[in-house]
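Students often ask why we bother encoding 3D structure as a string. The short answer is that it lets us treat folding as translation between two languages. Here is a chain of 401 residues written in the first language.
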Amino acid sequence: MRQIMYPSFSARPAWAEINLDHIAHNLRQFRQQIGPATKIMAVVKADGYGHGAVKVAETAMRSGASSLAVAFVEEAIALRRAGLDAPILLFGYTDPAQFPILVHYKLTPTVFGFDTALEYSEFAVDHDTVLPLHLKIDTGMGRIGLLPDEAVEVIVRISRLPGLKIEGIYTHLAAAEENDLTYTREQLMLFNRIIDSCTYKGVTFPLVHAANSAAAINHPSARYNLVRLGIAMYGCYPAPNLQGKGIDLIPALTFKSKVVLVKEVPVGSAISYGCTFRTTKDTLVATVPVGYADGFSRLLSNKGHVLIRGCRAPVIGIVCMDQLMIDVSHIPGVRLNDEVVIYGRQSGGHVSIEEAADQVGTINYELLCALDKRIPRYYFEEGKFSSVCDIIKDRIISINS
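And here it is in the second language, the structure alphabet:
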């Protein structure tokens, strides 16, 4: 993306650029791969993996998704208040006491126990309504869900409760990104056995889903009639070995800042807290107003890299809460207000979020979700800057407003 002069919604020289065209591209890639019959559920929990749930959800629904998913009620309410009327599945536990919220905002909870289902049923009957739900099966993730030995009996009992409508059944695959397919095959066998047993007993499911991003790429047999796209929708592969398997993803997020100070320090100068870095020669140091409070991990101290003028510049010293320092001695002409790319591309250079994740021993998911809300999100559509998410006003401002 070319450097753009943004409206002065935020005076802070640090921001994230979200290319919504890339999200649309990534969804089209899956549509081509899975065919027209399989539905796509766009997973926009954790504020759209740090990209901004509302704008991502709007783009997803325009680009082939049929429903949305979040973790908790509060995330769903934010989508509804923004005007999104698509079906929304809640992945996590939802207390039956929140039944009025589910009905008011037309939300679909996940249920994985008879007692919870019974409470929902009693509420629904009392309020003369019908509550849709999805049933979760734990086939080997060890998180939430009905255990296989009890699942069929409990599902049949739930199906007989008044006021409830079972819209779907699903499971979560724990190792779908692995080259060894054994564990995933075992999970799918368990899942299929439960579905077949329920069908034999007269309980059927309009929606059946097991595939997360990794399984949607790596396991065609796990796609059923709906796939759940999370990390891949944002242009990141769940694991490096899934690249080149028919899905060409483009990252949607670029994290940027600017140089706020350039200074030459003599040999032997200590940089940042703890004096963990000392210069071995006269060194040109640039300060960048991004720190661990913004989501740039402190574990990248003395090992991370950023881009300036298309060149990689090493992070030196401990990453502070709001600032970091880099060595730019080898980059000619660095000056105040030069653009700094934290994650992304610049003039042929590239620092990926996967590289940073590897350096700190985590995954790209975590670093995306760690991007703090105080970092403004600038949105691009059809190749143009379209809007900015302003946390001060807690709303999205159109470029035309």
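Translate back mentally: The longest helix spans residues 182-200. Keep this in mind for the problem set.
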